[in-house]
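Suppose you are handed a protein chain with no further information: no name, no annotation, nothing but its sequence. What can you learn? This example shows the usual starting point.
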Amino acid sequence: MPDDRLLVVPNAAIQQNPRIGVFAHIFYPDLCEEMLTACNHIPGNCRVFISTDTLIKAKEISVYCEQFSKHPFEIRVLPNRGRDIAPMICGYRDRINEVDYGVHIHSKRSSHFRSSFADGWRKHGIYGNLGSTELVQNILTVLADERIGAYAPDHYEAIRPAVQWTGNFSTVKQLLELAGEDISKDHHLDFPSGSMFWFKTKALKPLLDLKLRPFHFEAEQGQTDNTLAHALERSLFYFVEIAGFAWIMGKRVSGAAAADSVLMLQAPGFNLNHVANRIFPTNKELGGLRRYFGNCTRFLARPSLITKPRINLLLPTLNQGQGHIDIDSALALFNAIKHALGDGVDARIITTDVSPEQLFNPPEGYQLTTPHDKDQAGVNNIADAAQRFRFPFFVRKTDIFIATAWWTATHALDLLSQQDALFGVQTRQFVYFIQDVEHSYYPWSSLSTWAEQSYKHPDKIIPVFQTEMVSDYFRQHDYFNHGYVVYPAMNLAIKSAITYQANKEKLVLLLVRPHIERFNTPFIDVMIRTAIDADPVFWSDWRFIALGDHISATTFKTAIEVDVIGEVSPQQYAGLASKAALGVALMASPQPSYTALELAEAGVLVLTNAYANKNMALLHDNITSFEKFDVVDASQQLKRMAEHWLTNPTQGWQGQAHINWFYDNAAITTAKAAEIAKEIQAKLIQ
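A reasonable first move is to predict its three-dimensional structure. Written in structure tokens, the prediction is:
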């Protein structure tokens, strides 16, 4: 596609009598007959604009034109710089703006190759663009589609290995920077090798807007590579994409293959998006928000033609300890839903913010794929979308997304919209695993409003809340009036390492994460300072230990008595909790503090906070919850807990949980996942 039979693309908005320009650079006049005869396959309103480098050649070419061209022609003598590229974009810039479609050809001889190779490459380019009237009509039909900006024949097979950056990358990068875009060597590269191609005039506007002049190009010295012209050749499709268009590379086919191609193009379900190419995510697709917040970088979605349904988990990272998402709970829910849906549905985990670590070991049943890998049915994979600013991201019509954070919900909404554009509009929703009230993480700001808006699409969202407390908050504040509730499970590595009934010590564990504001590290610091200052004798034989990630010796700026240990293994954490009498674990959000529940299981008397509808004291005997964030009140409460513990140092082991979901929730998660899967199956899997 295109082929040499006359095709009709369904619903194509064919422009009546379009203005067509052939931009032919003829350095070798003896090839005029070959080139002009091919140009005669262009129907209708066409002019031939010819460039050459000497007046003598121009006169010779004029004779050929009078004899062989059925179209009006114009010949310009232009400087011998920039090979065939500069004469078109510099010497005929004015004429390009006078036509709707253009085709660029030239008398390519490539004298550094043997003549048979060079002739074959040239003819491949000329006849691949102008080989028959039917072929030209098919190309014009494709270009009439508003999405398509350029067409080129597929690479001459012998030259395919040379489709590389070679020494041209730095110049390409500079050219694209002039157009406001950036590129790396990791980006996909494709271009009309030999620089013969069709284009919409509008698709070359970003290139023409650079206003290059002949003096920008190197003097002709027989160069075989590493010139501005070679860099521009490699940039052509990038500029087409910057203009907002896709492009197509096609092969001329005949016989049965041509008949099949006709049937494909005329089929009711045919979608030109399925053969159009986009390889370069531009600033427009990536979105301006990424300039402020990198995790908001949008996707350039491209169609995968695989029809098998697939569920996709949008997860900021798979690297434990990074970010604020409860990765384990998200994976547990995702895997349970996948299990409930069965083998008829593929699974993909999409890491949106951080690439998997170098030694990352994929979970059983999954394979790690790169942006270069082909989409495959029947394969569960982990896709690194942290590189989406460099690569297109392939989606199926049947992809279903599960978001885990507000910006991944924004991605899901955008991907649903792109699915509609690629495959046609239909009912689409995504599952939103809501673990907390994320807009409360930020001061009133752009971030808080963007986070909050992710909840304001109830018709697009199947909400799944982590704990009843979080669900109640969203219901009470009129974000949702429906949704599923699931519960987190205690880390088995921690639970199995607890030494139950161990002797307790005068040890206070402080669970902090200073890089996450809602954990209230400064409040804990000042509260401990206040408690010690109020009764230094009482606290003189107590030890305070700070645990958590992203902490250092300078984290506690007032309570210098605190021993900062930092991040520890689950086993070390459980060992310290088994010995500790008291613990402090705060979280200024409706989400329950899981560390408070872990400490309570280890016999620790825990001080935490209430928030909105949250009261952790209702969940376990060992938890005390304060209402006011007042350091004096909280410090006094901590002392009362210590005094109470002194009356019975084993009382923490006697405390009872009033919930079962945190300590044994496998059956609950499985049952809820089955309900969610049933709704997905009914609504989203056709």
